[in-house]
Amino acid sequence: MFLSELWQLALEAHRAGDERVLRRVYGFAHWCFHQPEQFLSNASVVSFYEHVFDEWELRDEVAPWLPAEVVARVRPLWEWRWPAERLSEVDRLLSGSPPPDRNAV
Question: Which of 10, 20, 40, 71 is deepest in the core (most CB within 10 A)?
Answer without folding.
Answer: 10
